[in-house]
Amino acid sequence: MKFAKVIFWCAGAWGVLVLTPMYFLYGKVGKYSPPAPTHPEFYYGFVGVTLVWQVAFLVIPTDPARYRPMIIPSIIEKLTYVVAVVVLYTQNRTCGLQLSAASPDTLLCLLFVIALFSTRRSLLTRVNEVNSIRG
Fold first, then answer.
1. How far apart are CA 36 and CA 43, in angstroms?
2. pLDDT one-digit tens code per residue, 82-99
3. Domain locations in the chain?
């Protein structure tokens, strides 16, 4: 369970640190990765929803066994981005730089899967303890 705590705390902290500046970089995004965004509501909506997931990543380590069901959508959240970038790259619709930018999410996705399986043991231990108390 300690593994899940560390992984999700690190994922949430990393995400907040990386995403928060995006609120202030709207005008520069097109300069570094053309074309410039044309719909600010989609840009800020994306940043906002993504930051909400970082909050979820910071809630999960408070009790990984209790919040274990939230690990599954956390895995999917990471996987959807990674798969999208890989597909776009194979279609020559994005560059290798974007592919490498997805590597932290790839790593986190794999670590989330490990955390999912590691919390199963903790959950079973907790259930057995409760059953022995009720006994």
1. 11
2. 999 999 999 999 989 999
3. 2-134
